[in-house]
């Protein structure tokens, strides 16, 4: 959908969007879609990411203030919730689009993980969702009927070798979404994860072998890989009142990849690659 037209699905709703780094970020595209749908929000990212300066352009475009928060610091998370409360009063939606693995960045293989970095991977990419929900609730920021979404990946269920310790982080992230979701349900609050297909972003392309993962998914998914903008449109529906009874779910947004075995195109390609006569369909 274009940036201009919308359905007003988030009119009157307020939120926090974590994780927009540059215009390829999934969170960046989600912020534009939320703005298009009439939502009001604050943008947050780690101080180091804010120093890059790109977020100012998104802030100007959407009228959203930018507040720094390193989610590995409890103090930062609590401070952000209080700042947001002063700015917006309460929030109806939260986007967690945060992922980082020092092991992947520094090319440590799964069998030789640095355990301190492994803990950082889990803390930043998964436990941060727990912290955000804890302080959003305890500061009185989280409104009844709110919707919380964290972005996940199918590595939580299946092994993708190059995704290394992020596979484990996503499994933990999805578990926290389920467990917190059950505890917030009495206030009508929904907590879900969207399992997005490989997407060309800074975090995505930072993974060695990303192009292979992208192409593999693209060739197998009947609808092909969804873009960040398509993820943003899906996210808007989950923040809206149209999905009030959807909670504690991991929702695949992957063009049908999760339900597919192998595509016709892949079989033919493999047959050509290996010259296997018995492969005839
Ligand atoms: N790109 C993909 O292929 C893909 C697929 C499925 C899920 N996801 C998930 O989507 C989310 C967004 O990633 P993206 O692909 O848009 O990449 P991205 O690099 O644009 O976003 C990752 C964000 O995490 C932020 N971050 C890292 N450490 C932080 C910290 N300590 N405190 C606060 N923020 C911190 C970064 O600054 C960045 O903005 C991540 O959870 C990622 O795992 C990505």
- How many β-strand runs? 7
* Bound molecule types: nicotinamide-adenine-dinucleotide
The N- to C-terminal Cα distance equals: 39 Å
Regions with little confidence, pLDDT below 50 for 5+ residues: none
Give the overall form: globular
Largest sheet strand order: 3-2-1-4-5-6-7
Strand content bin: 5-15%
Task: Explain what this protein looks like in three dimensions.
- The protein is α/β, with parallel strands linked by helices and 281 residues long.
- The chain contains eleven helices and seven strands.
- A seven-stranded parallel sheet has the order 3-2-1-4-5-6-7, with helices on both faces.
- Helix 1 crosses helix 10.
- It starts with 13 loop residues before the first strand and ends in a 7-residue tail after the last helix.
- The protein binds nicotinamide-adenine-dinucleotide.
- The site of nicotinamide-adenine-dinucleotide has 26 residues, from helix 1, strand 5 and helix 8.
Task: Supply the key terms.
281 residues; alpha/beta; Rossmann fold; seven-stranded parallel beta sheet; 11 helices; 45% helix; binds nicotinamide-adenine-dinucleotide
């Amino acid at each position: 959908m274009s940036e201009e037209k919308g359905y007003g699905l988030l009119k009157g709703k307020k939120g926090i969007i974590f994780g927009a780094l540059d215009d390829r970020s999934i969170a960046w595209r989600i912020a534009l879609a939320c703005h298009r749908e009439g939502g009001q929000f604050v943008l947050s990212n780690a101080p180091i990411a804010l120093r890059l300066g790109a977020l100012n352009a998104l802030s100007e475009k959407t009228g959203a203030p930018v507040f720094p928060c390193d989610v590995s610091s409890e103090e930062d998370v609590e401070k952000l919730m209080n700042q947001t409360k002063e700015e917006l009063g309460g929030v109806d939606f939260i986007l967690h689009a945060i992922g980082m693995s020092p092991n992947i960045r520094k090319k440590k293989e799964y069998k030789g993980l640095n355990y301190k970095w492994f803990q950082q991977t889990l803390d930043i990419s998964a436990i941060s969702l727990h912290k955000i929900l804890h302080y959003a609730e305890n500061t009185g920021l989280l409104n009844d009927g709110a919707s919380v979404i964290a972005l996940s990946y199918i590595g939580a269920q299946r092994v993708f070798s190059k995704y290394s310790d992020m596979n484990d982080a996503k499994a933990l992230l999805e578990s926290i979404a389920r467990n917190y979701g059950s505890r917030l349900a009495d206030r009508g609050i929904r907590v879900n994860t969207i399992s997005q297909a490989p997407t060309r972003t800074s975090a995505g392309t930072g993974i060695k072998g990303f192009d292979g993962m992208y192409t593999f998914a693209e060739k197998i998914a009947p609808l092909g890989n969804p873009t960040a903008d398509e993820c943003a449109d899906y996210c808007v529906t989950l923040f809206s009142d149209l999905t009030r009874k959807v909670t504690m779910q991991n929702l695949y947004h992957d063009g049908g990849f999760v339900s597919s075995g192998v595509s016709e195109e892949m079989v033919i390609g493999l047959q050509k690659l290996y010259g296997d006569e018995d492969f005839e369909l």
